[in-house]
Specification:
Elements: E1 2-7, E2 25-27, E3 51-52, E4 55-56, E5 69-78, E6 81-86, E7 95-102, H1 104-113, E8 130-136, E9 144-147, E10 150-154, E11 160-167, E12 173-179, E13 182-183, E14 197-199, E15 204-207, E16 209-211, E17 216-224, E18 241-248, H2 256-263
Parallel strand pairs: 7-10
Antiparallel strand pairs: 1-6, 2-6, 3-4, 5-17, 7-18, 8-11, 9-10, 11-15, 11-17, 12-13, 12-14, 12-18, 16-17
């Protein structure tokens, strides 16, 4: 059993580019393990100035500033949640997805490092039942490329972004999400076993930022790596990636793969003669 969260209704997010992916209690938003409805919420703490560019102030050497973008701790955004039961069908995620982001120069450099020519982004994972994208504050999908199996998304310094997850099935899924290696619910190093957000059938889940309470989050904003939330808390090793562990709910799930199997079921799989019983 887990407690998963459900984010209360957002306005429709237009033009989301699909990146495919598809008990206990789960949030229609999310909750940290062991939390109970009505209990005080303990989300991630605001960053301090104890960490600078991966090194501690006043002790040891300070690493050179890294280029490109990270995700900083933005302004407070009203994003209330409720809680609902959710029993995972298995202890392992149904699928996992990673979206790499950087500024335009960094994305081009990353693609060159992988030895490929960037192409327009269109990412698919699992059987295509769930679409995942990063969108700007107006709901527009961020541009990017598919390079050697990696999704490379282009962000702009200072710009706010949101995570959009669209469910194209008749089943619920639990989405455990991370940004820069940190869980978006409690700000700690991410683990798929943490509680996540519920996305309802044929609905869109929008994650606005790092959750600070049952009603608010700190918006996701692109910024310098040294100013990122990760660099100022646990370190900048995993800056530049948004991750998703997606869990199916216990019970039958009508995914395109399952429907395809139904559609192509053979009523006469053995076309031979009868065999005498033993």
């Amino acid at each position: 059993m887990t407690i998963a969260m459900r984010v209360l209704r957002h306005a429709w997010i237009p033009s989301v580019l699909v990146a495919a992916a598809c008990g206990g209690y789960g949030a229609k938003g999310a909750a940290s393990p062991g939390s109970n409805r009505g209990a005080a919420y303990y989300g991630p703490s605001a960053p301090t100035n104890d960490h600078v560019a991966g090194g501690l102030q006043g002790g040891g050497s300070v690493e050179p500033q890294r280029p490109g973008l990270g995700t900083s701790w933005g302004e407070q955004v009203h994003a209330p949640i409720s809680f609902a039961p959710f029993v995972r069908s298995a202890s392992s995620p149904w699928t996992e997805v990673g979206l790499h982001y950087n500024d335009a120069q960094g994305v081009q450099a990353h693609a060159a490092y992988l030895g490929v020519t960037p192409q327009p982004l269109e990412v698919f994972a699992g059987d295509g039942s769930i679409g995942i994208a990063l969108v700007d504050e107006y709901g527009n999908t961020l541009p990017g490329y598919l390079a050697n199996g990696r999704a490379l998304l282009v962000g702009n310094d200072g710009a706010r972004y949101r995570i959009a997850v669209r469910n194209g099935t008749t089943a619920r899924f639990e989405i455990v999400a991370s940004v820069d290696g940190l869980d978006v619910i409690d700000g700690k190093p991410a683990d798929p076993n943490r509680r996540g957000y519920i996305v309802d059938p044929h609905d869109t889940l929008v994650i606005d930022g790092f959750r600070t309470s049952d009603a608010n989050v700190a918006a996701f904003r692109f910024g310098r790596v040294a100013d990122s939330y990760a660099a100022q808390t646990s370190g900048d090793r995993n800056v530049g990636v948004v991750g998703f562990a997606i869990f199916a709910e216990r019970g039958a799930v009508w995914t395109p793969v399952e429907l395809g199997r139904r559609d192509t079921a053979d009523p006469f799989p053995q076309r031979g003669y009868s065999v005498a019983p033993r």
